[in-house]
Design brief:
Elements: E1 3-7, H1 11-23, E2 27-31, H2 34-43, E3 48-51, H3 60-70, E4 76-80, H4 85-93, E5 98-101, H5 106-126, E6 133-136, E7 139-142, E8 147-150, E9 153-156, H6 159-170, E10 176-177, H7 178-185, H8 196-208, E11 218-221, E12 225-228
Parallel strand pairs: 1-2, 1-3, 3-4, 4-5
Antiparallel strand pairs: 6-7, 7-8, 8-9, 10-12, 11-12
Helix pairs in contact: 2-3
């Protein structure tokens, strides 16, 4: 039985979707806020995520980013009342595989769910994942094994270091704010006054930069955050 994580804060819609998906023989785990969705996704295994964008505590876009840091293959379907082309493009850029606007046709939703799960199964069965390894300059990072090669040779990265590098690389050439990093990587809902990120970045520069004081890849944007430049 395929497992679906349903993240929808509108109770009537959540119950209706859960019932109809279960009638199609899916096992459904339903939650109503973003923070709970992230916690449950890390603890359990799912074959698909159906995700609203306007959620309490953590919006769907940030939930999707968090999911992609931990799992690059699980299909994510956005289900949202935000229906402009810019909204759809932004959702797909954040890592979604599909985007369906409210109100929607139930039969169309069920068909999209079926197709996304089948497509992902084919990919997992037929392809060997190469996206887990990222090369830049003479460096590389293996996001699955937490192993890397840097300016001093082989390195074993911590989970937080891997998550931080993946977030920056997924948003390469774009500024990622300290607040966003703390929410996505450290799961902070209240942003503390901390230099945690700065210390992590200093270590990462020592690993991957020839000149850590004049970094080529992990660059600071004064007063905002960091960006990975390539």
């Amino acid at each position: 039985m395929k497992r679906i994580l349903l993240v929808e804060d509108e109770e009537n819609l959540q119950h209706a979707l859960k019932l109809n998906l279960e009638m199609e023989q899916y096992q459904v785990r339903a939650v109503g806020d973003g923070s709970s969705a992230v916690k449950i996704f890390r603890e359990e295994k799912f074959d698909l995520v159906i995700l609203d964008i306007m959620l309490p505590e953590m919006d769907g876009l940030m939930v999707c980013e968090n999911i992609r840091l931990h799992n690059s293959t699980v299909p994510v379907l956005f289900l949202s009342a935000k229906n402009t082309p810019a909204d759809r493009i932004n959702g797909l850029r954040k890592g979604a595989d599909d985007y369906l606007t409210k109100p929607f046709d139930l039969e169309e939703l069920l068909l999209r769910v079926k197709k996304l799960i089948e497509k992902n199964e084919r990919i997992l069965n037929n392809d060997k994942a190469t996206s887990s390894i990222f090369n830049f300059g003479n460096n590389f990072i293996n996001f699955e094994s937490y192993e890397a090669n840097g300016v001093t040779g082989k390195i074993a990265l911590t989970k937080k270091e891997i998550l931080l590098m993946k977030l920056l690389i997924d948003n390469k050439n774009q500024v990622v704010s300290r607040e966003h990093i703390l929410k996505v990587v450290w799961d902070y809902t209240v942003i503390p006054n901390t230099r945690t990120i700065d210390n992590f970045v200093l270590n990462l520069r020592k690993y991957f930069e020839v000149d850590a004081k004049n970094p080529q890849y992990i660059q600071s944007v004064r007063g905002v955050g960091y960006k990975f430049v390539i």
